[in-house]
Design a protein that fits this description.
Blueprint: E1 3-8, H1 12-27, E2 31-33, E3 41-46, H2 51-65, E4 74-79, H3 80-84, H4 89-92, E5 98-100, H5 108-116, E6 122-124, E7 147-151, E8 153-154, H6 165-169, E9 173-174, H7 177-189, E10 194-198, H8 207-210, H9 215-223, E11 230-233, H10 243-251, E12 258-260, H11 268-273, H12 280-293, E13 298-305, H13 312-325, E14 329-334, H14 351-374, E15 380-388, E16 394-398, E17 409-412, E18 422-430, E19 435-439
Parallel strand pairs: 1-2, 1-3, 3-4, 4-5, 5-6, 7-10, 10-11, 12-13, 13-14, 17-19
Antiparallel strand pairs: 8-9, 15-16, 15-18, 16-17, 18-19
Helix pairs in contact: 9-10, 13-14
Length: 440
């Protein structure tokens, strides 16, 4: 039996795509292996969002190509990098045997069969195609048995001037709500306690097919499913977080009090150049509203430094804003010049300035994170056990930590605990990113 190994890079949305490709391969009769050295075919699902992600994808392709000197017969690459550079990638990287676009993932088994039949250097793309998976699409969940992602939409209509995602993924396409509910029910029956809704922009869910924002209603319906404990949604744009959504989150115990809001900047001129549909005033007001609406809440954001034409004063405005907002979690990244985007033609900031601004923001956020974490000392939280660290302490996560991206709770316990078990932990100490607690 042909063994197929997968490497999934980038975001959780990409991971869902990899899970679908694994499901398609298994249904076609292939065996899925977690070990590259055992694989007859290696599939790399790439990211192409910014330069660092592209470089990671290229490095991974070259690393996996080394296995062709051993057991691996074919190397297949898909994802955002191939969609973006389909005309160049096979020429530049002869190690690759086939490439697929982001909308052709279900054709992967067919591509593998063609490679074994002697066809080579395959390119499978259909720019007119659309692909939105459904609850009946084969899928092998790659996350631990207690949480799973549900992608509720494909593509993006925001058209931020720096972002290549719409060029790669196309327009925003929502999944039908009944189908999302069916998938969530299936996951709940399978023992998954935490559902993580993801999309390029979850807050615009439903606008295209229902002509109104439907995330609040979706959250309500998901909350009615038995056996689901936590419901989380990621990537919510500030202009679409309204009172209806805030009230639903406040009223539904299963919906975690956690907001992931990528704001990118606070200066109004830069926001306009970014084609962001909000303002400094609205962002600040939103943060006040969220903080006043909940007894305890976590706000995560991302900011961009070194956007074209960003002046020192405009960066200082962002710096002071971060100091004022005291985000519980903050990710920063340096602007990446992406060809084909409007921002790429603007006057660019030099790399040295970008790095300096990036380091200043991160150094500031380290202090803020420690300050915010210390506020949790003495409090008790329900947590899910995720495993043990090298010192044999338990690694846990509360509703205020999103999987894969946030810090952890390091927990002491007098009794043996299992991954996926929910227990109560009292926080005893705090660090910049992680907390220490004791199971009670």
């Amino acid at each position: 039996m042909v063994k197929v190994g997968f490497v999934s890079l980038g975001c959780n949305k990409n991971l869902v795509d990899s899970e679908i490709m694994m499901g398609a391969c298994k249904e076609a009769g292939f065996e899925i292996t977690p070990n590259a050295e055992d694989a007859d075919v290696i599939v790399i699902n790439t990211c192409g969002f910014i330069n660092d992600a592209k470089q990671e994808s290229i490095d991974t392709i070259l690393e996996m190509a080394e296995y062709k000197n051993k057991k691996c017969k074919f190397l297949i690459v898909t994802g955002c990098l191939t969609q973006r550079y389909k005309d160049e990638i096979l020429k530049e990287m002869p190690e690759i045997d086939a490439i697929l676009g982001v909308k052709e993932m279900l054709k992967l088994p067919e591509v593998i069969k063609k490679l074994y039949e002697g066809e080579g250097k395959l390119q499978v793309f259909d720019n007119k195609a659309t692909f939105v998976y459904t609850s009946s699409t084969p899928r092998i969940i790659a996350t631990p048995k207690y949480y799973a992602y549900i992608k509720i939409a494909e593509g993006c209509n925001n058209r931020c001037s720096y972002c290549s995602i719409p060029l790669i993924r196309g327009d925003y396409v929502s999944r039908y709500m009944d189908d999302i509910i069916k998938e969530a029910e299936k996951l709940a029956k399978g023992g998954y306690k935490e559902i993580v809704l993801t999309a390029q922009d979850t807050t615009k869910y439903g606008l295209d097919i229902y002509k109104r924002k439907m995330l609040p209603i979706l959250l309500q319906r998901l909350s009615e499913i038995d056996n689901i404990k936590w419901i989380r949604f990621l990537y919510s744009y500030p202009e679409d977080i309204d009172d209806e959504l805030l009230n639903v989150i406040k009223d539904l115990p299963k919906v975690v009090k956690y907001f992931d809001i990528p704001i990118q900047h606070i200066n109004n001129r830069i926001l306009k150049l970014m084609n962001r549909r909000t303002s400094s005033e609205n962002i600040k007001e939103l943060i006040k509203r969220i903080r006043s609406a909940f007894d305890e809440v976590v706000i995560r954001t991302t900011v961009m430094v070194g956007f074209p034409t960003e002046s020192e004063d405009e960066f200082e405005e962002l710096y002071e804003f971060v100091k004022w907002a005291k985000f519980d979690r903050l990710g920063a990244f340096m602007y990446s010049q992406e060809e084909g985007t409007p921002a790429a033609s603007l006057p660019q900031i030099d790399d040295e300035t970008k790095v300096e601004r990036y380091e200043r923001i991160l150094n500031l956020q380290r202090k803020i994170s420690l300050e915010q974490n210390r506020k949790r000392i003495g409090k008790k939280y329900e947590v899910v056990i995720e495993g043990r660290d090298k010192n044999n302490f338990y690694i846990a996560r509360s509703q205020f930590e999103a999987p894969e991206v946030d810090g952890k709770i390091i927990a002491f316990s007098k009794r043996k605990l299992l991954p996926g078990e929910y227990v109560t932990v009292k926080i005893l100490d705090a660090f910049e990113y992680d907390l220490v607690g004791e199971v009670i």
